[in-house]
Design a protein that fits this description.
By secondary structure, the protein is mainly alpha-helical. It has a single domain, classed as MFS general substrate transporter like domains (Growth Hormone, Chain: A, Up-down Bundle). It is built from 17 helices and no strands.
């Protein structure tokens, strides 16, 4: 080939080489989690979660203004309610365009709101509005970041990959409250807001560094709407209720465990979250693919029963050591139920609608968080924290039995690699 011919064909060769690299990237992503972009995206997910988990101690900051427990529940829960509002169409956008751009948009929105928390002087309208605005950014950023991470993971281990992704949130769930306790003790409550802002900026940098991976061009498109395969309204209600109840129960633990621990004289609450997170991480690495191998319902039902019984145990705790052990058992349950239940929703709606299914699951979960926090705060106002946890455990047990009886059994299956994500 002479020089003139090489010069003419050079652009073509560049294009062909680029396409070959795209194909190699796609094949490598189907084999392994550990690639540059997955690492950056997972780090972005971790920092995003850290920015939120330091706010688990916001109720202690608000306590100086002497609000009712139900008011604290409303302030904490509005974050989830506004996240729900922004999600209905987000899943479709993520399925069509990928998660990275939407993740950046959500994180930037949260960064813009954070400095205003320094102006909070009571438990009134301002803090409620700020929590609502943070929730809107969180609703966009969380769904899009999970979708972006899962696009970079193997296609045949969906539940396992979501579980691995969730470890970033679990680590943040342990580190965030402990860090927040130390910052507030040393520097005052303003450090809480500064730390959250720093973590958001770190998450933004990580997502900017993440490349949007190419997707196979195979003509597979997301279905144009919800298709439920002829299931009855009761069945759909039961399926939708399970993540909502899970969210309500999660809210009863996350938003009130600090106040419960203080009322029981347990001192530091951070070790509870550390124990919880350690167990959840061990579960994800040890048996994180169990629902991929044996089916979603075979994991969801016994795990939900375990969590419900553990809530009854919280209600009777008097000793700090058993308090930490309870956190460990709760973490085991959370480590199994989140990937199994979220992947059940993906299997139910179809793998080509992954973004839509994740958005729906997270919306239902946040609906539970948003409604459950004020409801359980009201129960606590009436009967105390121990009564609240008994009620939470009973609700989860009822929902679990209904799900087990009415939800269809979906076989754990590996998608055809040619079908894309």
């Amino acid at each position: 080939m002479n020089k003139k011919t090489r010069f003419i064909l050079w652009p073509v060769l560049i294009i062909l080489g680029s396409e070959q690299r795209r194909e190699r990237e796609i094949r490598s992503l189907q084999r392994s989690y550990w690639n540059r972009d997955f690492a950056f995206a997972l780090a972005g997910y971790f920092f995003l979660f850290m920015s939120v988990t330091v706010f688990y101690l916001l109720p202690l900051y608000l306590d100086q203004f002497h609000p009712s427990k139900s008011r604290v529940g409303v302030i904490m829960g509005i974050h989830s309610v506004t996240a729900i509002i922004v999600r209905p169409f987000l899943g479709r956008v993520v399925d069509a365009r990928g998660g990275r751009k939407m993740a950046l948009l959500g994180i930037v929105g949260m960064i813009a709101v954070m400095p205003a928390f320094h102006l909070v002087r009571d438990a009134g309208t301002l803090v409620l509005l700020l929590r609502a605005a943070m929730g809107a950014g969180w609703g966009v950023a969380l769904t899009a970041t999970i979708a972006a991470c899962s696009d970079l993971a193997p296609l045949d281990r969906l539940a396992h990959s979501i579980g691995i992704i969730g470890i970033g949130g679990i680590l943040a769930g342990a580190a965030g409250p402990m860090l927040a306790e130390e910052l507030v003790r040393r520097f005052g409550s303003g450090a809480l807001f500064n730390a959250s802002l720093i973590f958001l900026c770190a998450g933004l940098v990580c997502m900017i560094a993440t490349r949007e991976m190419p997707r196979p061009e195979n003509g597979t498109a997301a279905r144009p709407g919800f298709q439920f395969g002829g299931h009855t309204l009761l069945t759909l209600a039961v399926i939708g209720a399970m993540p909502a109840v899970h969210g309500a129960i999660r809210g009863s633990v996350v938003n009130f465990i600090a106040l419960f621990g203080a009322s029981a004289g347990f001192g530091r609450i951070g070790p509870f979250f550390l124990s919880f997170s350690t167990a959840a991480i061990l579960t994800r690495f040890g048996i994180g693919d169990i629902s991929d191998r044996y089916g979603r319902k075979k994991v969801i039902f016994p795990t939900a029963i375990l969590i419900g019984l553990n809530l009854f145990w919280i209600a009777g705790l008097r000793n700090y050591g058993t308090f930490l052990l309870n956190g460990f058992i709760a973490g085991l349950g959370q480590g199994l139920i989140f990937p199994a239940l979220s992947t059940y929703m993906i299997d139910f709606l179809g793998r080509e609608n992954k973004g839509l299914a994740l958005g729906l699951y997270l919306s239902l979960f946040d609906l539970g968080m948003g409604l459950g926090s004020p409801f359980f705060g009201w129960v606590s106002d009436l009967g105390g924290y121990r009564t609240m946890y008994v009620a939470a455990g009973a609700l989860l047990l009822i929902a679990s039995v209904a799900f087990h009886l009415k939800a269809p059994r979906l076989e754990a299956r590996s998608p055809d690699p040619s079908a894309g994500n």
